[in-house]
Amino acid sequence: MGKTIKLISGDGEMFEVEEAVAFQSNIIKSLADEDNADDCIPLPRVDSQILSKVLEFCRKHANSPSVHTKFAAIPSELCPKHDGSAAGASSSESSSAHSETCRACYDAVMKLVQWDLEFVKVDLDLIHHLLKAANYLDIEDLMFMAVEGAANAIRGNNPEEIRKLFDLENDFTPEEEKEILKEYSWLDDPFEP
Amino acid sequence: MSSGSPPQGRGRGEGEEEGASSSRPRFGRRRTDYPSSSRPRSADAVWPEHFVESVSIRAAEEAARFAGRLAAAPAVVAMFQVCSTWRAVSRSEFLWQVLCRRIWSCRRRSLPSWREEYIRLHRTAANFRAGRSAYFSLLSPPTDDLPCCRLALSDRHLAAGFLDGSVRLFNVPAGRLLATFRADPHRDRLGRFSQAISGIVLLDDRLAFASQDGDVHVAELSSPREAPRRALVGNLMVDGTMVDFTGNARWWVGLFAGAPGHSWRVWDAAMELLIFVGGGLMDSAAVVGWHMLTDIMKPVVGRARILEQGVVVGCSTSSMEVLDLDGVTGTILNQRELRHGGALVESFDAGDGRVMVVDSRGVATVKEVPALTEVSRFTTLRRSERQHGSPSLEGCMNWGYALVCISRGVHVWDAITGEYLYVFRQRIGMATAMAASDRYVAAWANDTGLHLWDFGAL
């Protein structure tokens, strides 16, 4: 095990993880950079159940490039097939062009994306907690996936169904509802199937 | 909303309170399993406004991916109808700007707000899907028997290149003739059609046109009466015939047949400097290439189209090739042999990161660039039409629709799903040049002249 970081959750539980895992969080990374004798970072706003889920995500992403925020661009140096022995043009080769034509990179990215989608197939309460934790800890990929999870939960739902999912009240007056229909009348296409 | 449940939280965006979570997280269970009265509510449970904005954008993208771009707007509007706080997100210009970029690949705004721009893009797309357009005949059947061989469209102009080396510029949507550009009529000619236009690069402020002899001229659109300047001098005997010419503000690309190993020439458009020569795509068409100078050849032997992501795709009768421009210029990123009797090169076109081509059986395929993975396929010819030797058709494609002109009309398919949509009401005969942009379709037919369809939202 390489260098480790100790994290203390809001409810006092200690988690020891590798640096590569913890540094997925930009906040933890900058806190660890400061002189800290114990290498022990308190995270009062995240409780242990959420923190363990967050760390599960970070563990999976520890040695992969960001697949969501940079549109799956894998530089050829990280390609599992090419293994750093790619032709000399690799340093200036356009990353997205490489990963789009390299089967090995494409498969690796797809596997990670699938895992992430399964990870956020949970109820909106958990997504809400993950989002707050990701926001607080500044973990880009997890924030992206929380949004993804919520969007997936919403998919195909009408406003009433969305309200039920998010536990929200319809606070429009009948006049306001009419106003909205008028505002978006351009969506009503007589020729739409 | 069930009666008897405690007051439910509103989706208030401001003042989200961070504090120790008081609700119990549930892993993997659907919310509907729990009666609402058992869940304590706190200010902690509100969803921040920027989250609603991100989810709205994501929901629109997902809808577009699954059901087409026209499904994006209904998905995002459903979010706005949830409650008044979520509706407030609809006033975010940032949201509409991101949606214009992600759903429609639109980065420039022509209307006062991004919201209006989105509505315009959506309604234009709806018009394309439904076949609603305004039709204009720009040049009626020509008396001087001068065929048009190239068409190019931009936001405000249509340029038509002719066999005699002239280029006519029209404004769109009005369709008024603005200028006729001619290269120096006294320069050397080798063969009757060496001056025929092989390609046009139409930008907002200038246009570059190339002829089969390899000359490239540049005309400033703001001074239409000025003679065009010769930017590049072709070398016919050495380079062969320039079969096609494509480009944008950064590169000019010429496809040549006649000199083996020199199919591609790439120039830096700003410096007008040659930066790459090479490739064998047109090697097998060398002899035919020379004949093009004295004969109006059908079928077309090669076509090239530049794409926004900084690559150019070339198509011959037997193969397709993707050439890198932005990375290491001249690198072949991908190559594909075209089976089933080869391609009908006059059907080849590109739009929004994809290319389309019809094979000699009449089967059209749309492929993603640069991976050349198939996106959709559809049949363009009836069985009876396939049996009449080499079929004659012309094709073009924009961001979402593939158009193929055969003798019985201009037919339209959804380029992403392959679904057949409709045929244009106007029967123009057999087109020999076509172009499609996000808003317009233009076509030339020798019998009926120059036609323009405007799908812009009214």
What is this structure, in a nutshell?
With 193 residues, chain A is mainly α. Chain A is 50% helix and 7% strand.
* Class by alpha and beta content of chain B: alpha+beta
Strand order of the largest sheet of chain B: 1-28-27-26
- The gyration radius over C-alpha positions of chain A equals 22 Å
Structural class of chain A: mainly alpha
- Largest Cβ-defined interface: A-B, 58 and 66 residues
Strand elements of chain B, count: 28
Structural write-up:
With 193 residues, chain A is mainly α. Helix content of chain A is 50%, strand content 7%. Chain A contains 9 helices and 3 strands; from the N terminus they run ββααβααααααα. Chain A has helices at residues 19-22, 26-33, 48-61, 95-101, 103-119, 124-137, 140-154, 159-166, 174-183, and strands at residues 4-8, 14-18, 40-42. A 3-stranded mixed beta sheet of chain A has the order 2-1-3. In chain A, a hairpin with a 5-residue loop joins strand 1 (4-8) and strand 2. In chain B, strand 3 (157-162) and strand 4 (166-171) form a beta hairpin. Mean pLDDT of chain B is 84; it is low at 1-44. In chain B, helix 1 runs antiparallel to helix 2 (72-80). Chain B is of the alpha+beta class and 458 residues long. In chain B, the strands form 7 sheets. A 4-stranded antiparallel beta sheet of chain B has the order 1-28-27-26, with no helix packed on it. A 4-stranded antiparallel beta sheet of chain B has the order 2-3-4-5, with no helix packed on it. Chain B has a 4-stranded antiparallel beta sheet with strand order 6-7-8-9, with no helix packed on it. Chain B starts with 48 loop residues before the first helix and ends with a strand. Chain B has helices spanning 49-67, 72-80, 84-88, 93-104, 114-130, 236-239, 286-291, 383-386; strands spanning 134-139, 148-153, 157-162, 166-171, 177-182, 197-202, 206-211, 216-220, 229-232, 240-247, 251-258, 264-268, 273-278, 302-307, 311-316, 319-324, 332-337, 343-351, 354-359, 363-368, 374-379, 394-397, 401-406, 409-414, 420-423, 431-436, 440-445, 449-454. Chain B has 8 helices and 28 strands. Chains A and B meet through helix 3, helix 4, helix 6, helix 7 and helix 8 of A and helix 1, helix 2, helix 3 and helix 5 of B.
